[in-house]
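Hello,

Our lab assistant flagged a job as stuck in the queue for most of the afternoon. It eventually completed. Since we weren't sure the result was trustworthy after the delay, we are filing this so someone can double-check. Below is the sequence as submitted and the structure that was eventually returned. Let us know if re-running is recommended.
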Amino acid sequence: MTNCLAYCAHEAHADLTPLRIERRALRDDDVAIQIAYCGVCHSDLHFAHNDWGSTVFPCVPGHEIVGHVTSVGSAVSRYRVGDQVAVGCLVDSCQQCAACEQGEESYCEKGMTPTYNGRDRQSGAVTQGGYAQHIVVREKFVLRVPEALDLRYTGPLLCAGITVWEPLRTHGIKQGSRVAVVGLGGLGHMGVKLAVALGAEVTVITTSPGKADDARALGAHHVLLSTEPAAMKGAASSFDLILDTIPRKHNVNPYLMLLARNGKLALVGALEPLEPIHGALLAFNNRSISGSLMGGLAQTQELLEFCAEHQVLPNCEMIRMQDINSAFERMEKNDVKYRFVIDMASLSDVQVD
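-- returned structure --
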């Protein structure tokens, strides 16, 4: 086992503080990674606050991890010391069920192992995430970062990026597709950038006129104010796909009306009950609703390659590890455009007894 410095939540709603944690000794198929940067996801905040009632404390968040390989197990063949790599939201799965065999490890029928707040499938130890100096991960769950990608901004692709990439690919978005993105936060801004890069005509749907310039700066072709009834009526039956990134309970009926024949509304934000849905809005035009949690390993690697080729990267604000509690406070106020990323070099300035 090895020792490293991390930032940890010890109880709900308490500040994250530095702590030395143990990483397991290398197994034959393990890769050890020195973490260079780690993105900050809203899920990190929810787990640190125990908002979902399932956090095991102490908890080290972080599942948008990028860095360099420092050592490998004896059976590792895909990576060498010095390689530029990434780790996303999961670090293991059963590898035997239909979902795993089909490259959808995030939907493992026996439950995937999350990067933090999960249980190691061999030892039973609680997994600890990327707010740390280094991490040890099974080779299959390590992703290669193309040299053309700027490592500083790659982390959020592993969560916000893949969350919207999965429905864009599943629903066949291509040149000429008509895509709408509801909400312009961390998920929404990546939805806009990726849909534009795929060749779609992209509309941002928002309640705020003040976000129109931001939407166009990200590449959106149009902005639709959902608070303007005439504009919403005029956009009826217009879109092949709507990415709904709103992270809380809301009314999806106004958005269903905007779907064209065979159109799909993909829920990628709200992990809670929605307001009642009017069945007629689905029956007419053969509309449907789908959900997406995240993509599997192959699809995430595909995303990294696509983003390298098209130079699609999230808009990020770099912070020190020591500033994570302030970042959490700002996230609660939606005061970030659009993702925080932690520079792990800042941990060299932290002293722990």
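-- support follow-up --
The delay was a queue issue, not a problem with the job. The result is valid. The CA atoms of residues 38 and 65 lie 5 Å apart. The first strand starts at residue 2 and ends at 8.
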